[in-house]
Amino acid sequence: MVITRFFQYIKRWGKVRQFLSLFSLCLLLAISCTPNQQTTTTNNGNNTPGDGRITIGTTQKPRTLDPADSYELGSMGLIFNMSDRLYTYEPGSTEIKPQLATELPKVSADGLTYTIPLREGVVFHDGTPFNAKAMEFSIQRFIENKGKPSFLLSDTVDSVQATGEYELTIKLKKPFAAFPSLLAFAGVCPVSPKAYEIGAGKFQPNTFVGTGPYKLAQYGTDSLKFDVFEQYWGEKPVNKGINVQIQTSPVNLFNAFRTGAVDVAYLSLQPDQIKSLEESAKKGDWQAITAESSVVSYMVLNRNQKPLDKPEVRQAIASLIDRPLLNQRVLFNQASPLYSMIPTTFNVSQPLFQEKYGDGKVEEAKKLLTTAGFSKENPAQIQVWYPASSATRSLVAQTLKSLADTKMDGILQVEVKTVEGATFFKEISKGTYPSALLDWYPDFLDPDNYVQPFLGCEKGSEAKGCETGGSQVQGSFYYSQKMNQLIDQQRKEQDPEARKKIFAEIQNLVLNDVPYVPLWQNKDYVFAQKTVTDVKLDPTQNLIYKNIKK
User: Fold this and answer.
1) Torsion angle, CA of 183/187/192/197, rounded to 10 degrees?
2) Are 475 and 436 in contact (CB under 8 A)?
3) Residues 97-110 pLDDT 10s
């Protein structure tokens, strides 16, 4: 499944946490010490002591609650908690388990047909019974209404049919071993056929009628209320409902949590605020909950632009990168160094970049550039681009330039360049940028989502690079017939161990060709008041509401 749509990037960057640079940190601290600059946050009556409801604070304002059109983290987290999917995840695990399905799919020998038995006795929030026809309707609507995430299924699914009252049969266009993980995507949830329509653009952004443990009680511009769905088929929430407060800024969220106006704060706080709250948590003021994220940050290297057309130059950059330095200076140690484009979330991930290139291997970088024909008199000149809205990537780019200026004896010259975000994402697939700093939010939790969208190429050649495909969209223009074959093999392979070996080959090929340099893997931070318990994150970064109590 090649992701070729511009909105894919808008979504990914639209939900990126806006880290501050060290300079803006100083400014923020100065401002926050000035009394007339502080913002006071009240609870607006949402956090009534003893009512059993949980108040959650966030800066993520939902664009829509329609699962067929939702593609931002703020919206998806709300839909996740009001819905069920055919499959879901255990907290802390990327292994899927049945939810509205009663068991994992039965897959045909050719890998194209998935037969899924469904749970009985489930009803929608409006009382409509859930069955295979309702699930068929919901999947067809997801595809045919042509919302932002529709390509996730339209590129993959050939047909969906209720082959029994509680049996669903889905046929794929081509084999895709990760398909069950796609069915765990929050947007692929059943919605009531009585409450929704099929048709391009027929969305309902301000309502939600699903089968989940909560039903929508109130939808406002700055707050939402979820009530417990008393007819829920499964284990009901331990709380009496959820109040969501949407704060206008990280500063407001920070203050709302510190003053007790919210029980739980999640998405998005700035690094200095996280650091401050963590220090107070160690003193027992409140709780800090951390989890390894599946979001990865990386550097893309365009093999169609000189001098990056030479593999030695790409390898030299991989050797020069100093992840611990970036983590300390830029990220406040709130991330983990990453040595594969596949994050450590998955057991197939191998830290091959650490073994071969290490961190800050300046002498090795010099040798590689010298081998490629560069010298102080004839330096390798590289531009590093990033979207202007990202203070984090600004500091990363400046750090890389500083490393080159102070350590590389003039053999490597780095020029930092920036451009407005919308222009950046339009131009990267055109090959405008020699190198760029980006991050990746997965659509579904499978190693394939870190491989095919980056390395796959539908049309290309060794001479021209990728002309159409994932690597062209990502800006590396990487082309390898061997890689295309490996991607195809892992997508067909149903045996996990055999698939793991294929992913090992893929990572080894990336290690030598270096179309990308992995940089870091994000960490997620949630803060909860002392009286709150059982705060957990789903592997897809969603805060799980129904287990929270106080």
Assistant:
1) -110
2) yes
3) 999 999 999 999 99
